[in-house]
Amino acid sequence: MQNEIYDEKNGLTYMLCGDYYLPKLALTDIEPTYGKYGMLRKSYLQEHRKAKYQILLLQGKLVEHLNQIDAEARDTLIVREFTYMVRQLNLNVTAEAAWKDFAARVALPEVDTFVTVFSLAKRSGGDSILIIKNAVRQLGDKAEVKREIDTVIAAKKMEFQIMSVIPLGIIGYMRLSFPEFMAGLYGNLPGAAFMSICLGAYIAAWRLGCKIVEIEV
Question: Most exposed residue of 59, 118, 119, 183, measured as fewest CB within 10 angstroms of its CB?
Fold first, then answer.
């Protein structure tokens, strides 16, 4: 029997102790430096990813993982922005003013819309939570529609690029395969004039196609 075996399913190494294989646990000297976000991650793993939590714990990598998650979360833009907003609220800045300041910093139309809805809901004295939920749902629907439109436009752009190259490919093929036919088109004045008109029509159609596929949503 082997002294040690490795289980690829859970990433643990087992050591032979007598007649049984026991997990080879690793001790770590890493100090826990994580704060709120690390604890949130730990709670999430314990409640929703129990297997991963046990593997990290047995491998001695749990503290390192929580430290990394906490550091990354503190460094993200959205966390920095909300931390700044909390400081503003602690300095008696109104929530409406804090949100307007946030919208001015990020300069996104969706955020401007949300702040406008938030301000109107706060001033009207209605069900602010319901109004904000409806606004968030509408913004989500708008984002979903925009993604679908962007997907369709991207497909049409690809089709346009392919169709733009096809006439040039046809002319090249005809020059190689049927030089006598092409000589009849370009070797005399009427043929050259006709092909010049076709080239002008092609360029006009190409410019029109470029304007159509450059639609901004």
Answer: 183
* φ and ψ at residue 95, rounded to 5 degrees: -60, -40
Report whether 26 contacts 40 (CB < 8 A): no
Q: Token pair for residue 62?
A: 């749990």
For residue 42, what are the contacts with CB-CB under 8 A and spacing of at least 6?
53, 62, 66
Closest CA to 119 of 87, 91, 97: 97
Q: What is the pLDDT along the chain (217 residues), one digit of tens a residue?
A: 667 776 766 666 777 676 766 666 555 567 778 887 888 888 888 888 888 888 888 777 888 889 888 888 776 767 778 788 888 888 888 888 888 888 887 777 777 887 887 777 777 766 666 776 777 777 777 777 877 887 888 888 888 888 888 888 888 888 888 888 777 777 778 877 888 888 888 888 888 888 877 766 5
Structure tokens at 93: 């800045």
- DSSP string covering 59-85, please? TT-HHHHHHHHHHHHHHSHHHHHHHHH
